[in-house]
Amino acid sequence: MRTSFSILALSVLWFLPATHFANGADREQPRLTWKEHRRQAEKSVETGKLLEAAFHFEAAWKQKRTQKELVYQAGMLYAQVRDYAKAVQLLAYVKDDVKAFPSARYKYALSLKQSGQYDDASRELVIAINTYMGKDRNEVVEKLQNELSGCSLGIQMEAAATALATNENAGRPKVKLEHLNENINSIGSDFAPVLFGNDILYFTSDRKGSLGIHRSQQMVGEWRASDMPKFPLDHNLPFGNGCFAPDASRFYYSQQETDKKGNKFSAIYVIKRAGLSWAQPMRLRNYINADGATTTHPFVVHQDGVETLYFSSNRRNGQGGMDLWSATREISSPDIDFTVPRNLGKTVNSSADEVTPFYDLETEMLYFASNGKQSIGGLDIFKTKNVGGKNWNVPENVGLPYNSAADDYYFIQNRAKTGGFFTSNRRFAGEKVTTVDDDIFGFSIESSQPLQVKGTITTKSIGKQVNTSFNIALYEKRGKDDLRLLTAETFGNGVYQLLIMPNKTYRMEVEQENYKVATYDFSTQDTSKMVVKNFVLEPIGELASKSGEKTEKPMGPAGDSALEPTENEGNIVKKGVLYRVQLATTKNLDASYRRRLERVESYGRFDIEWAANEEKKLMIGEFESLAKANQACKVIQTKSFKTAFVVKYENGKRVGK
What we know:
By secondary structure, the chain is an alpha+beta fold.
């Protein structure tokens, strides 16, 4: 059973070939006999179309229910492609036939566990422990007991998460998960995230029909449409995963290969930066890419002139399954000669699979995924601290929400350790409804410790700090056009300082009379200390003319803006009592008002009411209650018209000032 599971892990989890998920159930099928369905299922297994094979075995069994072998094959294949719900449904018909199908209850119990049904899974695991009598009983029972322990851990973690969610004073940082948008996650499988800088994400996807490397950039909090970077890779071979060296001088990656006997495996390659481009790929030496073994998941760190390569492999002399290994080389060496790989040992590795290493040099913490330790699902993310160079602490399950009842792996962090990414096949809040494919998730750690944004204000006309007061409005950006005002403050002497929070996106607006409003959009996702932003205000109107700046065209009588107020005599049509907000009084309605009006346009139409001495009263909105008018006025005061006030009207006539 151990051997078959390792083969499954290599063929499904590490490369996820596109043919693996070719879903015959989604196509119109002609009416076939049960024997024809069975033959088609067997052909699909041979070509690697396992989900299609499961569909045909299931269809054959529905026509010939006396053939339990058919439903067993269907259930086992659904478990293999990680359709846990279908596996549970079909294996329930054969799980009690221990003699004919000794592995059925085992797979049934694991499918329950990976569906998050820990209580039912625990019951079935206990039965499996007591009834399994295969020749490999000792090995299987040890595996089942570990899975049973994982169910107990899952129940404990869920209870702890519920208690934490209801205790606002728990004091722990909150972790927010995000299922990345459709520019990252496609209808197929998307996995192996690699963060370059703070806003470029490389990842593996089968969206083009075969596994390839893709790249997307985050701009103003949104991931843009991905493209395929122009790396000199062999695009005829399925791309696995990769990583950049810390100095971006090299890119290590794995790709799938096939030997002369038709066996598939993976090997690690490297491409070196050559000026502004990349040199041709070089395959790492055979003592890294061992013959007959899969070598994958490279991750590189630099320290004290030495480059350390971590990777996973099922090569000989390991602990079993996929193990984590390391090798080193001198950074100054232009060659690719590494030391002979060293197994990370029994503390880290198990008889099952340890994969996707990520090493944080600052904390000396190694993150990896394993299904051989106490897991609440299949693959869980673990962490262990390096002690004494070659030794490691006992790995710790990182828990919820990073781990789930499904498979979770490919964990990485950003440089500021305020967030990162991982891969999972979990269902997620209606955005991901199947467990068959992998998607990339982002996480951010909402620390309770505030940060600072600070800087200076100078003017373009005189090139020195502003001596008079100016206003700053700080907004939280929740979406492209969704701004929530957090604070509006007045500062003097050309210096400002505001408190902000990590893992947020903000907009600042700086305003001073006779100067254009200055804006600044920024994110604190990758900031651990403070944000520094200095503003230079540009003059407008007469001040701009005096300073030699080009002035804006003033708004004409009809206006060239949708925000142009209309003139009236102070009367409004609506009868009864209502309220309006007076924004300002001015003789010259010039371009200096344009931006200020744009920021309050959502509160209704604009009008001009004439006053004495040819002054114009700028009015906005029509509110049926004083409370609503006061609420609007309060926000308007923070946006751009700090002297705005509410005016009452009775039957269309202004009451009071």
